[in-house]
């Protein structure tokens, strides 16, 4: 029996099931595939290279403790995602879960918030793919190539990534997993060699709470930075439709990925602190990348491979992140929450090509608007127009919107189980843990939105509020025009 003519497709012709004719290729990914893709999306080298210096500046010598606290907080969120997936695995992820719980307006609003947040965050990754390659060329003084604008490299690497993603989820996921494995091996080797070389400075001061700058306040202020290190942990949920036995494998991938990243980040942070001889002033110098500085001190050849690890990390995060996050838009499109053309798949490869190109195109548009904004604002100097500046600014805004979605998902979990699966409701898993998840989300949200931050960060809370209001207005108009959205949201279950 051909793939295009099955009992399911016949049923779709006789009785229309929204989106049934636009299914992804089911069951082609295993647990290892989606776990590797999730960790590639997190991009440990990329995230740690550009995030740990800021974290050390905020939290001080005991910044590894902040990472541990953030990892535990992410585990609370992992519980929420896993509990939803056990009973309703969906390519729509948080959009389907929240919409199925609170109704059509909330579902459409969540779709826009999720799309805007992830596209803004991915725009930062798109930029740093070219920016980091430019850093490598400049570090090794590679002739005329070092002066090539980073946006040119962005276009080249983006074309490669898009080509791999359109070819199919299996090959692009395996490529992202290979990139992830390479970066992890290099970072582990550099960390071990660093500990051996600087063994005289090994001690437990990085794990003593008294060494957190400013005490609890320092821990809280560093918390958003530490949380950002884990962004992407939810990747596997959007791959549910293409995953074998998603009700079991997605939750396993979620917790496995979080735990591995928690242990790895803590180890990398400890070895980096040791490599700087516990000198927080040097460690938090904004003009350096701490891990690469340690690699340079250890051996020139390790520095070279550490640079390569950073490059594979950015590419892996771009491929894995876009694969996952574009599928959220794809599912919203095929269910009618977003324009329907987004919910189309390639006729033979079964990849959501329209969603992929829409996602990446909007990411490029954000970079263009960002650059134009700096020019109009009178800040066209190279330091303000660097890919690293774009990375920090765009990822911060995206994180605000994503955290709101995290919070809504935690709020939804107990209501969903009470409404749809009262016989399976567990007070601890479906009440206490998501409640703690909401609390831990409020901390980074407060520090990202509090008044008194420098421009443009002081604009972000108002822009986020504007996105929320516009999303709700759009949702209200759409639902009034198409009342059937309430039945369609979350209607396509991955393994049914």
Short structural description:
The chain is built from 18 helices and no strands.
How would you describe this protein?
With 496 residues, the chain is an all-alpha fold. The protein has one domain: Amino acid/polyamine transporter I (Up-down Bundle). The protein has helices at residues 7-14, 31-42, 44-59, 63-87, 94-102, 104-139, 150-167, 169-197, 216-228, 246-275, 280-283, 290-298, 300-334, 353-376, 387-420, 427-449, 460-481, 485-488. The two termini are 18 Å apart.
What's the topology here?
Elements: H1 7-14, H2 31-42, H3 44-59, H4 63-87, H5 94-102, H6 104-139, H7 150-167, H8 169-197, H9 216-228, H10 246-275, H11 280-283, H12 290-298, H13 300-334, H14 353-376, H15 387-420, H16 427-449, H17 460-481, H18 485-488
Helix pairs in contact: 2-8, 2-10, 2-13, 3-9, 3-13, 4-9, 4-10, 4-15, 4-16, 5-6, 5-15, 6-7, 6-13, 6-14, 6-15, 6-17, 7-8, 7-13, 7-14, 8-10, 8-12, 8-13, 9-16, 12-13, 13-14, 15-16
Any idea what the radius of gyration is? 22 Å
Mean pLDDT: 91
Major β-sheet annotation: none
CATH topology: Amino acid/polyamine transporter I
Task: Pick out its properties.
496 residues, mainly alpha, Amino acid/polyamine transporter I, 71% helix, globular, disordered N terminus
């Amino acid at each position: 029996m051909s793939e295009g003519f099955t009992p399911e497709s016949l049923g779709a012709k006789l009785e229309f099931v929204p989106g049934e004719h636009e299914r992804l290729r089911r069951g082609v990914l295993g647990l290892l595939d989606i776990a590797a893709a999730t960790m590639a999306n997190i991009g440990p080298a990329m995230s740690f290279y550009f995030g740990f210096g800021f974290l050390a500046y905020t939290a001080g010598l005991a910044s590894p403790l902040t990472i541990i606290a953030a990892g535990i907080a992410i585990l609370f969120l992992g519980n929420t995602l896993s509990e939803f997936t056990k009973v309703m695995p969906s390519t729509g992820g948080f959009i389907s879960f929240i919409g199925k719980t609170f109704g059509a307006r909330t579902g459409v609003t969540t779709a826009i918030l999720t799309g805007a947040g992830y596209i803004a965050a991915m725009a930062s990754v798109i930029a740093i793919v070219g920016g980091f390659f430019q850093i490598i060329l400049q570090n090794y003084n590679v002739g005329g190539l070092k002066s090539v604008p980073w946006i040119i490299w962005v276009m080249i690497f983006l074309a490669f990534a898009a080509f791999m993603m359109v070819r199919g989820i299996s090959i692009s996921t395996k490529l992202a997993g290979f990139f992830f494995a390479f970066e992890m091996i290099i970072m582990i080797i550099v960390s071990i060699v660093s500990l051996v070389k600087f063994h005289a400075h090994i001690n437990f001061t990085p794990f003593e709470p008294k060494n957190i700058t400013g005490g609890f306040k320092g821990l809280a202020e560093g918390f958003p930075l530490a949380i950002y290190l884990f962004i992407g942990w939810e990747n596997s949920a959007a791959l549910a439709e293409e995953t074998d036995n998603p009700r079991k494998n997605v939750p396993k991938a979620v917790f496995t990925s979080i735990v591995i990243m928690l242990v790895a980040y803590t180890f990398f942070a400890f070895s980096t602190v040791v490599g700087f001889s516990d000198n927080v002033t040097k460690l938090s110098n904004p003009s350096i990348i701490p891990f690469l500085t340690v690699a340079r001190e250890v051996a020139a050849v390790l520095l070279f491979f550490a640079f390569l690890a950073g490059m594979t990390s950015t590419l892996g995060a771009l491929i894995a992140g876009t694969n996952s996050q574009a599928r959220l838009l794809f599912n919203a499109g095929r269910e009618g929450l977003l324009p329907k053309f987004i919910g189309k798949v390639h006729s033979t490869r079964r990849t959501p090509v329209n969603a992929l190109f829409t996602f990446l195109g909007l990411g490029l548009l954000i970079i263009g608007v960002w650059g134009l904004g700096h020019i109009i604002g009178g800040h066209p100097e190279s330091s303000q127009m660097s890919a690293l500046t774009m990375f920090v600014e765009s990822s911060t805004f995206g994180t605000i919107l994503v955290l709101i979605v995290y919070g809504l998902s935690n709020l939804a979990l107990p209501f969903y189980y009470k409404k749809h699966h009262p016989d399976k409701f567990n007070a601890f898993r479906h009440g206490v843990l998501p409640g703690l998840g909401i609390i831990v989300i409020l901390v980074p949200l407060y520090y990202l939105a509090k008044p008194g931050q420098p421009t443009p960060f002081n604009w972000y809370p108002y822009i986020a509020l504007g996105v929320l209001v516009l999303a709700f207005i759009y949702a209200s108009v759409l639902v009034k025009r198409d009342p059937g959205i309430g039945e369609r949201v979350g209607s396509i279950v991955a393994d049914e």
